[in-house]
Design brief:
35% of the residues lie in helices and 19% in strands. It is an alpha/beta fold.
């Protein structure tokens, strides 16, 4: 059902990703062309909590054509973002100094009403879209846009930011081939991928890695060492191992280095762990390189720019058509479709073990440690 809209808001949550600004630009111009006012909420929902703690004394920004017209190629987000401040699990300090999580979502709902906001475009990954789904159930008109370099959101063929991250990771691994060969070393390259190995798999294959370790396939360090010592070493004097940050050994757990109230888990150490193991099991010298947040930054690729612009425009069309509680999903070759946030929230799109991409890697002789 269509309903009149006069003013909408847009926010970005979770980690930054190349293409965020392009989504914002498309949403802003599309909304202005319909005669709507559009405002940006700083740092997720924090701009509503702390209106007076931001530059110019407000957590809300009136978005104009002049503000967004040149930001398509810019990395990051002009609104700022955060992986803290979940309104449904907001970290608060008690009188005895402990941190507890409280539900402040009603304050956010009141903030939307107080500012005469008719609808929200929520740009984010699994956590942000889960929040958006909960707000939709509380009566807020919401359309989500899928954002994560990990490409691990259900119901969309691809998320924006993924192509840029994979392209940069591939370039970095390409460069490491020459230094690994020059020094006769095993180079272990850790890339992002908390619970799904899309970046590791796609960049590893594209950059001719010898070993790829992903969360979907628990590995045996002895299998990897045997592969390097008895197969790779017979054909060349070096080896490239690509590791997703969420990779784990058989019977082991992912490496969580931080878990605090109101914050996402921080993973780390997967690359260093396998590097230590291989140092003890392999003849070649081992070095580890962690790409980490380098994958989040920089200008988006042409593909991500166009995909992001399409997402932003489609989100505004969804609101115009009366949708709420949906996410805009990329559905080639048809284009964009709208799926219920219930089908996305709290779900992770894993690499399928029978996928053509993974089978291609096996046909190429790449080892997964299994």
């Amino acid at each position: 059902m269509r309903s009149e809209i006069k003013k909408i808001a847009i926010n970005t949550g979770g980690g930054d990703a190349p293409g965020l600004n392009a989504v914002i630009k498309a949403a802003v111009i599309s909304a202005l062309n319909r005669g709507w006012e559009i405002i940006g909420i700083r740092e997720g929902y924090n701009g509503i909590y702390h209106l007076d703690q931001f530059p110019n004394g407000t957590g809300l920004i009136k978005l104009t054509y002049d503000l967004v017209r040149t930001i398509t190629s810019d990395g990051g987000t002009i609104l700022g973002t955060t992986n803290r401040g979940n309104p449904f699990r907001f970290p608060m300090k008690t009188t005895d100094g402990k941190i507890v999580e409280v539900d402040r979502s009603d304050e956010i709902m009141a903030g939307f009403k107080r500012n005469d906001i008719d609808a929200l475009i929520a740009i984010g990954g699994d956590g942000s879209l889960t929040m958006a789904n909960l707000f939709a159930k509380k009566g807020l008109r919401v359309v989500g846009v899928p954002k994560t370099i990990d490409n691990d959101l259900e119901q969309t063929a691809m998320t924006f930011g993924f192509d840029t991250a994979v392209s940069f990771a591939t370039e970095c691994i390409d460069r490491l081939h020459t230094t690994a060969q020059s020094h006769s070393r095993i180079m272990v390259v850790e890339v992002m991928g908390r619970y799904a190995g899309w970046i590791a798999l796609n960049s590893g294959i594209s950059a001719s890695a010898d070993v790829i370790l992903i969360p979907e396939i628990p590995y045996d360090k002895n299998v990897i060492a045997d592969f390097i010592n008895n197969k790779v070493s017979k054909s060349k004097n070096y080896c490239i191992v690509v590791v997703a940050e969420g990779a784990r050994s058989k019977g082991g757990d992912i490496s969580i280095i931080e878990h605090e109230a109101g914050k996402s888990e921080r993973l780390g150490g997967a690359g260093e762990k396998i590097a230590r193991d291989l140092s003890n099991l392999c003849k070649l010298e081992v070095r580890a390189a962690i790409l980490g947040h380098l994958l989040r930054g920089g200008s988006p690729t042409t593909f991500d720019r166009l995909l992001s612009l399409r997402f932003g425009a489609a989100a505004v069309r969804a609101l115009e058509q009366g949708h709420s509680g949906v996410m805009v999903a990329y559905d080639p070759p048809a284009g964009m479709k709208y799926v219920q946030l219930d089908e996305v929230a709290n779900k992770t799109k894993m690499v399928k073990l029978n996928s053509d991409t993974l089978q291609t890697a096996r046909d190429l002789g790449i080892c997964f440690g299994d």
